[in-house]
Design brief:
- The chain is about 45% helix and about 20% strand.
- It is α+β, with helices and mostly antiparallel strands and about 375 residues long.
- The chain has a six-stranded antiparallel β-sheet, with helices on both faces. It has a five-stranded mixed β-sheet with strand order 8-9-7-10-11, with helices on both faces.
């Protein structure tokens, strides 16, 4: 393969990974790009899970054999079956430089390339109708991360030393792309996560709620929102210090997460200050109310604080049409304010007070506009 062609292949691989969204797409772009660059018929990307002592396959692309899935759930191999992932890097790479790729063939070690390490790869090549493979270690932050595996079908030209050298270059590009993707993923996670509690933040709720309401308008899916205000936080901060107040927030966050688990797929979030919420898409209104009831009970049992004021609004209740996320938020918020005013030990549910439900009237009568929104949802900025 000419130098210009290989350079173009490296550029295409890097561009494909950069354009991918989410981990799975990055893995697929890496494997597919390397497969094309090396003229393979199949490629896989695997990660070394040190804590489990195994090499887990993340993605398979190309001509997959029977039983090979694109994104396998349980395809993993004990590292001791493939000791090169540890021995090669620790013994041969320790002196510096880049870890080199090697070639295996269905007939045993290829001429002119580093000898194969184990019989498992050779047996797998034969079993899956492949004639040769090139294996390239992937390194991130100075540590073995996993491996890139590219194979050719039986009858195709066998990989040689030049291919192994090129695979080493490709693995370095893949490693850089994965590192960049992981940094972006972490940045996205932090952008949508409350630093103190580890729950989602207001930004995450806004995005998810907008999507949920659109689904409700399109498909009629039930969308429910539980908004709660943690009582007694100011007293704890004033009398025992902010460190203790933070501990109360963390403990309530754990309780919220636990109760949210009663609702499949629910999002537990801290909106800001002492305000939290649960967003459920799909479960019935009664299921959401039961989870909110359990939340109130558990919050009341916390050693710190004074329980929680909890309001619920669900599109499945008689609250009128919900055409925007803002309206559902205002309904749940109005129910929460009513619960706080009444010192209610159980959640107040919008729309369950009859045709003249005071919560619905309060929410619908609230002034609109940015300044009013800030007043009504005070303290909820991320």
């Amino acid at each position: 393969m000419g130098e210009d062609i290989r350079l173009a292949a490296v550029v295409a691989l890097a561009q494909g990974m950069a354009a991918a969204h989410g981990s799975r797409e990055v893995w697929r772009a890496a494997a597919a790009g390397a497969c094309r660059a090396l003229g393979g018929s199949f490629a896989a990307l695997s990660v070394w899970e040190r804590e489990l002592g195994r090499l887990r396959v993340l993605v398979n692309v190309g001509e997959r054999a029977a039983g090979e899935e694109e994104f396998p759930e349980g395809e993993a191999y004990p590292v001791h079956q493939f000791p090169e992932i540890t021995e090669f890097l620790h013994e041969r790479w320790a002196g510096g430089g880049e870890p080199n790729a090697w070639v295996e063939t269905a007939e045993g070690p290829a001429a002119g390339v580093q000898p194969g390490y184990v019989h498992q790869r050779v047996a797998a090549l034969r079993r899956r109708g492949r004639g040769s493979c090139v294996v390239a270690p992937i390194v991130l932050n100075g540590r073995a991360w996993g491996e890139l595996y590219v194979a050719r079908a039986t009858g195709d030209p066998v990989f040689g030393r030049e291919d192994a050298d090129f695979a080493t270059v490709l693995a370095a590009v893949v490693g850089a792309g994965i590192a960049q993707a992981e940094r972006l993923e972490e940045a996205r996670r932090l952008a949508f996560t409350d630093a103190l509690t580890g729950l989602a933040n207001r930004r995450a709720v806004d995005v998810r709620l907008d999507e949920a309401v659109e689904r409700h308008k399109r498909d009629g899916v039930v969308v429910s929102l539980v908004v709660c205000d943690l009582n007694g936080l100011k007293r704890v901060n004033d009398t025992r210090g902010h460190a203790v107040g933070d501990r109360l927030l963390e403990r309530f966050g754990s309780v919220l997460s636990l109760c949210g688990a009663m609702l499949p797929g629910a999002l537990a979030a801290r909106l800001g200050g002492d305000e939290f919420c649960l967003l459920a898409v799909g479960p019935s209104a009664d299921e959401v109310v039961r989870a909110a009831d359990e939340l109130c009970r558990r919050a009341g049992e916390l050693e710190l604080g004074e329980g929680v004021a909890c309001g619920v609004a669900s599109t499945a209740d008689p609250i009128g049409p919900v055409r925007s996320a803002r309206r559902l938020f205002r309904l749940a918020d109005a129910a929460q304010y009513r619960a706080k005013a009444e010192r209610a030990a159980r959640p107040v549910v919008a729309g369950r007070g009859g045709v003249d439900d005071p919560v619905v009237r309060l929410a619908d009568a609230a002034p609109s506009g940015p300044s009013a929104e800030r007043r009504q949802f005070r303290g909820r900025q991320p």
